[in-house]
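Lecture notes, part 5. Sequence design as translation. It can be helpful to think of inverse folding as translation between two languages: the language of shapes and the language of residues. The source text, in structure tokens, appears below.
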């Protein structure tokens, strides 16, 4: 029988919210609970909102809030920044628990959001959506939101895009095209063809991270193209590591590093603290994985002088029939209203604006709007900067970033942090040659099942 464990912190969340009698949240409310006219106004009836997010204010949020405040003197918004790490998320949750003013907040991981919904911290939005006539499907797409208990708790502000950047000079040298769709087998062929030289002069064909290697993150991206949502779990509650997709991914990474010698060995990468973006921009790596937020480094020709053009390809799929764009890519910046906010109507007004036209100041930092009506040419111009043709293959950028694809939307997160640690440990044993791939995934299965099933 499966053991149900609740951390002390989660217990405190639920107990405190129950004792304080929070309104809204996971109570099944289907209409705006702030519709009774109880908004808390300050002087001259001005409603003051606090909007919590993790992006540094100088990277767009301050400008966005200033734009709103100038146009809406009756609803004034203050941006409060928290750092998107464990201590920063704890700071946000502590503020929510303590009843500090948090009217709106952005969630950057679905498992964090799910926990907050379960704890009653998040206001259901369906009543607000219906009352205001806000068409979620028209603005964001039919599959843009994962519902919890058949209710809507968030609107995504951005689409997080992961992709492969390629040095076009090296592609041309090897007679290779810019890939439009490809598999991991084809990726390995490219990596081998683009690898050149030895020793200090070696050019690696591939490097699959911005900074140091992260095994779980790229496993997640790969297997979910094939397995889709909740790829780590079976219907019976056990782990899914006996699916061939997991062994297949580790075989690919082993081949890239050990057989083809087309990617830096993980031990060397960690020991020397290899930074993928620096290797890429100094011609030491031909293909490199990044997201839109990291394009600022390519635009920074002062610190990273280079004269080659960067082309873009989508993440490779595990097989030709893979349906999804994998984990770690998709809708993000899950914008929510605090269930205990005294200003929910005003918060909803601001939220509708922010997730559509309002977050435009954040685009230059690489945050591609999830809003389907955003001007794509303008978005590309803001992200790539002035005279983008000098540094980027603009056509391949637009093809990848604005692709009409189906993203993975997970709903299961049981013991995910511990499962991630298991994957990192067993995966590293594969890549340093300590364990065969079949033994490593068998260990993953056994260790994860012990967590999930309690056996």
């Amino acid at each position: 029988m499966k053991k149900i464990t609740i951390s002390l912190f989660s217990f405190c969340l639920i107990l405190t919210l129950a004792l304080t009698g929070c309104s809204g949240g996971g109570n099944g409310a289907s209409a705006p609970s702030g519709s009774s006219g109880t908004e808390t106004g300050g002087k001259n009836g001005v409603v003051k909102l606090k909007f919590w997010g993790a992006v540094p204010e100088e990277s767009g949020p301050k400008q966005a809030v200033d734009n709103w405040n100038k146009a809406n003197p009756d609803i004034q918004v203050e941006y409060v920044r928290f750092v998107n790490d464990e201590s920063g998320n704890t700071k946000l949750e502590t503020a929510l628990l303590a009843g500090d003013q948090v009217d709106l907040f952005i969630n950057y991981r679905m498992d964090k959001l799910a926990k907050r919904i379960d704890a009653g911290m998040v206001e259901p939005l369906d009543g607000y959506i219906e009352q205001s006539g806000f068409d979620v499907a028209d603005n964001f797409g039919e599959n843009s939101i994962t519902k919890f208990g058949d209710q809507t708790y968030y609107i995504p502000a951005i689409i997080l895009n992961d992709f492969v950047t390629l040095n076009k000079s090296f592609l041309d040298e090897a007679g290779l095209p810019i890939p439009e769709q490809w598999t991991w087998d084809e990726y390995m062929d490219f990596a081998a063809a683009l690898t050149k030289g030895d020793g200090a002069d070696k050019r690696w064909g591939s490097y699959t991270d911005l900074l140091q290697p992260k095994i779980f993150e790229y496993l997640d991206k790969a297997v979910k193209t094939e397995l889709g949502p909740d790829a780590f779990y079976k219907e019976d509650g056990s782990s899914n590591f006996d699916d061939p997709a997991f062994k297949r991914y580790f075989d690919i990474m082993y081949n890239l590093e050990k057989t083809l010698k087309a990617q830096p060995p993980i031990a060397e990468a960690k020991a020397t603290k290899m930074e993928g973006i620096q290797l890429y921009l100094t011609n030491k790596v031909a293909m490199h994985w990044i997201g839109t937020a990291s394009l600022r480094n390519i635009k920074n020709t002062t610190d990273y002088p280079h004269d080659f053009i960067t082309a873009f390809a989508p993440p490779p799929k595990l097989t030709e029939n893979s349906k999804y764009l994998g984990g770690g890519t998709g809708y993000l910046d899950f914008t929510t209203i605090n269930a205990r906010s005294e200003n929910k109507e005003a918060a909803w007004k601001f939220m509708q604006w922010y997730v559509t036209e309002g977050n435009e100041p954040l685009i230059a930092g690489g945050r591609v709007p999830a809003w389907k009506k955003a001007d794509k040419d303008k978005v590309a111009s803001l992200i790539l900067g002035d005279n983008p043709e000098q540094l980027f293959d603009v056509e391949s950028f637009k093809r990848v970033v604005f692709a009409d694809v189906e993203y993975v939307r997970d709903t299961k997160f049981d013991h995910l942090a511990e499962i991630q640690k298991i994957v990192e440990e067993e995966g590293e044993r594969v890549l340093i040659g300590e364990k065969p791939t079949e033994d490593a995934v068998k260990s993953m299965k056994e260790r994860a099942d012990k967590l999930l099933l309690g056996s």
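The translated text above is only one of many valid answers, since several sequences can fold into similar shapes. Residues 1-31, 33-38 have pLDDT under 50 and may be disordered.
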